[in-house]
Amino acid sequence: MEWIYLAVAIVFEIGFALGTNATKGFTRLWPSVFTLVSAAGGIFFLSLALKTLDVGVGYTVWTGIGSIGTVILGALIYKEKITPVKVVSFASIVGGVVLLRVAAGV
Which UniProt keywords apply (predicted)? Predict the structure, then answer.
């Protein structure tokens, strides 16, 4: 169940990051509300996942996969560029997440 909580937390993390850009410095009401709710949801579900996951594994997976999702959706939504260096960085993050899961015995 902890990995489901972590997956939900990651979705909220991506929403938080993308929403922060849409707030325009928290000057727009609904994007700001969305961003704050996403931040709270991400932390809440992360805390549920960390009841049984090691904090080093859970937090690293949360931020790593959240970062990848943010970059991919940022490219789709905000037309940000994905460069070859970013692709290599994504592969490194994914490799690290996989190794952490193996090390955690999951």
Answer: Cell membrane, Membrane, Transmembrane, Transmembrane helix, Transport
- Name the percent of the chain lying above pLDDT 90: 72
Please answer whether residues 49 and 9 qualify as being in contact, where contact means their C-beta atoms are separated by less than 8 angstroms.
Answer: yes
Domain ranges of the chain: 2-103
Decide: helix, strand or coil at residue 72: helix
**What pLDDT score was predicted for residue 98?**
81
User: What number of residues does the chain have?
Assistant: 106
Whole-number Å distance between alpha carbons of 99 and 29: 41
Q: Are 77 and 25 in contact (CB under 8 A)?
A: no
The tens digit of pLDDT for each residue in 18-44 reads 999 999 999 999 999 999 999 999 999
